[in-house]
Amino acid sequence: MKEYIEFFQAHPVLFFIWVGLALGVVVSTIKAARSKVTLVSQQEAVQLLNHSQAVMIDIRSTEVFHKGHISDSVNIQLSELQKPPVTRLNKFKGRPVIAVCEMGHQSEKAAQILVEEGFEQVYNLQGGMSDWHAKNMPVVTR
């Protein structure tokens, strides 16, 4: 214990950085455990699309969407999702919904909004379209 006190006294900035990182890990772990959104890999997403009639909700811009998207995905911007109610997606409430963006971060926000809107089976595509492309998964262009 004496070593920890000496370290804290000698390196207070490093000590507070370590404490901050530790708290961040704890908070993110608790947040992930309480979330109703499930993170899915590309292979799991394909299984949901093929066997559970899942719907892919692509929140990227229309221009980027048309350059390449997952087959049969619905393009809706995050800004539109943030203005409830989102009546355009009501017909999909009984089906699994997979949110996707470029990297997987914005789609996490979209998935949380969908949960708040009453969707029960909500997923977030891990790594977004960048990982989808990296794994040579098929895309459709318009």
Concise description?
This protein is of the alpha/beta class.
Please give a handful of descriptors for the protein shown.
single chain, alpha/beta, Oxidized Rhodanese, domain 1, 5-stranded parallel β-sheet, 13% strand
Number of strands: 5
Physical arrangement of strands within the biggest beta sheet: 1-5-4-2-3
Helix content: 40-55%
Determine the strand fraction and express it as a percent band: 5-15%
Instruction: Please report the distance between the alpha carbons of the first and last residues.
Output: 64 Å
Structure description:
- The chain has 142 residues and is α/β, with parallel strands linked by helices.
- It has two domains: 1-34; 37-134, Rhodanese-like domain (Oxidized Rhodanese, domain 1, 3-Layer(aba) Sandwich).
- Helices cover 49% and strands 13% of the residues.
- β4, α6 (106-116) and β5 form a beta-alpha-beta unit.
- α1 (2-10) crosses α2.
